[in-house]
Design a protein that fits this description.
transmembrane; glycoprotein; elongated; 4 helices; 233 residues; Immunoglobulin-like; signal; single chain; six-stranded mixed beta sheet; 12 strands; membrane
Length: 233
């Protein structure tokens, strides 16, 4: 009986030691997993950054590439935009100008919350006015008494938070002598019309040639397969 008790005690002790060893092994494995988890942080941060970028919407700005105006006249510089957000009081429009030969643009007009702020100490003093309507997604302005020194690139930049990512629209403005713009426009119209007429004449001639060829083919058709094969019909 005493021996059996001793054997039972030894068996219980062995089981307890095995359980303790297993627990220690599990604990060390957990420690290794905990030590490895920081390696996942860069990937998680990158994923979070990409998600935030995808959530940022953008404003699309539209302007003509080129614009011509006569010297001494008023020019309306068109600029429209689209935005996925409702136009709010935080929406703003900024116009800047980069003259020919200049390395950087200068700001000369700002509009926000229903108020226009023409830039001071610029060549556009008292000449630039607001001509748009943000509710209609129009950010146009007008510049009075255009001068030759106003030749250059005009940049329209629109912000409508949270739509803040935007590629500004750029207009290349060319100021011309009075009368030259009409001649230039007439020449352009005549050139386009001439090209259109030439294309039309070519198409008509092509159709006529095809019809004549089909007509001649029918005249030479004998009905005999051997003869037609020799004639290349």
């Amino acid at each position: 009986m005493g021996g059996g008790g001793t054997m039972g005690g030894k068996g219980d002790g062995s089981r307890k030691m095995a359980a303790a060893a297993l627990a220690a092994s599990s604990g060390s494995g957990g420690s290794r997993q905990g030590a490895a988890s920081p390696a996942c942080f860069p990937a998680l941060l990158l994923l979070a950054a990409l998600s935030s970028l995808l959530q940022v919407s953008a404003v699309e700005v539209y302007t003509p590439t080129d614009f011509s105006v006569e010297n001494g006249t008023e020019a309306k510089l068109p600029c429209t935009f689209t935005s996925t957000e409702v136009i709010s009081s935080s929406a703003s429009v900024a116009w800047s100008f980069q003259g020919e030969g200049s390395s950087s643009p200068i700001s000369f007009f700002y509009y926000s919350n229903g108020k226009a702020y023409p830039g001071k100490s610029t060549q556009f003093d008292d000449r630039s006015t607001w001509a748009g309507d943000l509710n209609r997604k129009d950010a146009s302005i007008t510049i009075a008494n255009m001068q030759f020194q106003d030749n250059g690139t005009y940049i329209c930049d629109v912000k409508n938070p949270p739509d803040i990512v935007v590629t500004p629209g750029k207009i290349k403005v060319r100021v011309m002598e009075k009368g030259n713009l009409s001649v230039f426009s007439l020449t352009l119209v005549l050139g386009v019309t001439g090209v259109g007429i030439l294309v039309l004449v070519f198409v008509i001639m092509l159709i006529v040639c095809v019809m004549i060829r089909k007509k001649n083919s029918k005249k030479h058709y004998s009905g005999d397969p051997d003869i037609d094969a020799r004639l290349g019909m």
